[in-house]
């Protein structure tokens, strides 16, 4: 047919072998012709032998014509090329279908980083739906933010016959139970006459102070509203530096309510000195600003693993100004925020909810550390100097007096107030510990019964 001839002509025209020099083309055709002649002769001889056994041998005239054989080779080559084209077309169609299916799930972005992500992550983690890895932080925000609250505080003053409230400050908190318990920092609500809680959904309510703990800077509030969202508490003991850290809160008050910032866990067990000794905190570079205090620090599982509390803005040049309170004398720092580990906070929160206060064992003294330098200057032993003794405390009943220096407790040498506090914290209320005291050059050991801190609040 004509279209078959046209097709063959096009194939022959586009055949790469047709563009080679004529001499090489003739040599190649001659070689192929001789090879084909040999194969044809063998086939004819075999056929002739078969015919001799079954029928009279007809006269066969074989045309060993170079030109006709050349045409046969060309025709054979065209058919092979056509077969290759058909296979290529089928492969292209199959490949296009597979590529289309892949692009449907992985998107059509040309960004190199996106291609790396989609190559090495599971399909469900890279898809464009709401559960994808690219939407991790937005999804965490959707889960946690409804349970994050703004806390506004006011102080009361009396104007003649009526009481008015003056705004004092604001901070953040988060709801831990459907019956309305809220966790925040003590410094957020300290000194407040009125506490108002605002939810992300627009609802607000006056909050009752259940209890607080100055030592850990924690406080628990309670509101009465229905259908309250709650956060899920995680395990801060499993944290590792470099993990994702997300802070949600209300920096600078109502205008920036529901702000989310993200960073990493920069460090663990960071010691910051407080009035009650060192506090071990989580360090993060997630942005924390005034108003974030009391808000949650969240991990990649949308679990609260810390309570944002402190931010360093500068480091002081001296012991008298360790945190750069005098800005002109301090060295500015960036990205150094701190949070109370949730595992440290849980038992405190539970005790506040149960008792309204935190019960801790205590001796009933006020004290300060005597350093090596102090000891040399004032001719005292290194240890803990007793500044005051609480009336009716275990220390008073044991005969400890102001001016005494505690040098041992439970048989262990005491070189700082933190050493003494650590030993006491390992005991329960009612336990008796042995305390070695230095007084006017003499030492003696007395038993001290530990009492509840609630007795001295």
UniProtKB/TrEMBL annotation:
A single MF term (Gene Ontology): serine-type endopeptidase activity
Keywords, alphabetical: Hydrolase, Membrane, Oxidoreductase, Protease, Transmembrane, Transmembrane helix
Transmembrane spans: 81-103
Family recorded in the similarity comment: Belongs to the peptidase S1C family.
Domain (PDZ) ranges: 365-441
One of the protein's GO biological processes: proteolysis
Domain of life: Bacteria
Biased composition (Basic and acidic residues): 7-16
Enzyme class: oxidoreductase
Residue ranges of the region described as Disordered: 1-31
Keyword Lipid metabolism tagged: no
Pfam families: PDZ_2 (PF13180), Trypsin_2 (PF13365)
Protein's recorded name: Trypsin-like serine protease
EC number: 1.3.1.74
